[in-house]
Amino acid sequence: MADSQGMEMGKVTEMPLILGGHSFISQLGNDPSVSERDQCGIVESCLDHSIRWFDTTYQPERIALGNVLHSLGRRNEATIMAWNFFTDFSPQDQPTRPEYYRPNHIDLILEQLHTDHVDCLVAIPLDDPEENQRQVELLIEWQRKDYVRSKTLKPSNGFEMTIHFDSQSDRSTSQLMRLLPPSRPANWRDGKQSPLPHSDVDGNSTR
């Protein structure tokens, strides 16, 4: 099944199934983390069943997905979402905090994903309004240069962001996604991160 249906502003809208990058790490996904062989099997099974969207929040997830798609030779079949996290961590460490985008970050992202573009780039707003504006300007520049294929995320209120997908490898669609507050993720407490509740495709908590 490639797509499910969700609700947007009282209307039914199609929303793609997305493989979460937490599938590649032990902290918020698989514990223990899966082997490289199993990572390839997961991604290959998704692509074989028309699940093309892949979310990579943290840098280790991005590196893992990039290596898998490169190994499979199937990057052109995947639609990749990447975020502003740029610090590695081991299976024993806590996930890291987001960072402001810097000009060199797009080269790092593309290198890690073994690609010449990323389909959707997410900017998490942090505490400095001027830095947040600079992030937006960077993403606009990267999109103009075709390093980024999709529209950027725009915060609409504390916990909601409207994302407009406009990828060459997928149908254009619009949906309202519950993501992160402007200052810090909802699962950060006292500088530490606890696992987010798992949700099914309809947004219902499974914990």
List the helices and strands and how they pair.
Layout: E1 3-8, E2 11-16, E3 18-20, H1 36-48, E4 53-56, H2 59-72, E5 79-82, H3 105-113, E6 120-121, H4 129-144, E7 154-155, E8 160-165, E9 173-178, E10 188-189, E11 192-193
Parallel strand pairs: 3-4, 4-5, 5-6
Antiparallel strand pairs: 1-2, 7-8, 8-9, 10-11
Characterization of the model:
- With 207 residues, this protein is of the alpha/beta class.
- It has one domain (3-193): TIM Barrel.
- The chain is 25% helix and 21% strand.
- It has 4 helices and 11 strands, in the order βββαβαβαβαβββββ.
- A 4-stranded parallel beta sheet has the order 3-4-5-6. The protein has a 3-stranded antiparallel beta sheet with strand order 7-8-9, with no helix packed on it. A two-stranded antiparallel sheet has the order 1-2.
- A hairpin with a 7-residue loop joins strand 8 and strand 9 (173-178).
- Helix 1 packs across helix 2 (59-72) and helix 2 (59-72) packs across helix 3.
- The longest helix has 16 residues, at 129-144.
- It is globular and about 40 Å long.
- 30% of the residues are buried.
- Mean pLDDT is 73; it is low at 1-9 and 156-207.
Write a compact overview of the structure shown.
The protein is α/β, with parallel strands linked by helices. The chain has helices at 36-48, 59-72, 105-113, 129-144, and strands spanning 3-8, 11-16, 18-20, 53-56, 79-82, 120-121, 154-155, 160-165, 173-178, 188-189, 192-193. It contains four helices and eleven strands.
